[in-house]
Design goal:
It is built from 13 helices and no strands. With about 220 residues, the protein is mainly alpha-helical. The longest helix has 21 residues.
């Protein structure tokens, strides 16, 4: 399976603009592989084949699409569309400042969020009372475990960080820490893993962990 995924992944890599910096991958991928549609389709895969795994794996190598698909898995398609639109603002900010997406998100943690950050940053940092959809999140975790197991080692940090964040949204901080550690073992400089490591090690929980569920509030 890993050999077949690698072969399919290499075919998708040919879509990369030659010598283009990472931000350029965002529109390049979006024009050919719609990340919103891929996220929704992925949740319906009961037995993903090599091409399915490779397609998702390729798209999430872009930090912007990684984060968009991650929050879409947890909160639904509408949130994914909002995140995709936010990515366009992030792309403009990256081009203007030369900073990476992970650096921009890390700045949000330090309280230096750009005005364009909006809902996406709040969801990623758990700074809202909206709860993730439990069924979608569990399905995504199951899927991403298959993706990680089938992926070339160098491509695993992105889905490992997605697994960590999704686990964290469900209150599984210790499990999230394991996934973060695995990502950092592969790439000690991976920005999203470093950010998540700070969140997990601090014991921080999302605000929705303290919110009363709607059914309990009604009673």
């Amino acid at each position: 399976m890993r050999d077949r995924v690698l072969q399919a992944y290499r075919r998708y890599q040919r879509l990369d603009p030659p010598g283009a910096p990472q931000p350029e991958l965002i529109p390049a991928v979006g024009d050919i592989l719609d990340p919103v549609d891929i996220a929704e389709a992925a949740l319906t895969w009961t037995a993903p084949g090599p091409d399915d795994v490779a397609r998702l794996l390729y798209v999430v190598q872009s930090p912007a699409h990684r984060d968009q698909i991650m929050v879409q898995f947890a909160f639904g398609r509408e949130t994914g569309v909002q995140a995709w639109r936010m990515n366009q603002a992030y792309l403009a900010l990256q081009r203007a400042t030369g900073r990476s997406l992970d650096d921009i998100v890390a700045a949000e943690v330090e309280g230096d969020a750009p005005p364009e950050a909006g809902r996406l940053g709040d969801l990623m940092l758990g700074q809202c009372a909206d709860r993730p959809n439990h069924g979608r999140t569990e399905a995504a975790i199951t899927l991403l475990k298959t993706v990680v197991a089938s992926a070339p080692r160098r491509c695993r940090p992105a889905p490992l960080c997605m697994l960590a964040w999704l686990s964290w949204t469900l209150g599984r901080g210790s499990v999230a820490g394991i996934f973060v550690e695995l990502a950092l073992t592969i790439d000690p400089t991976y920005g999203m893993a470093l950010l998540l490591n700070t969140v997990v090690c601090s014991g921080m929980l999302p605000e929705w962990a303290y919110a009363v569920p709607p059914d309990e509030a009604a009673s």
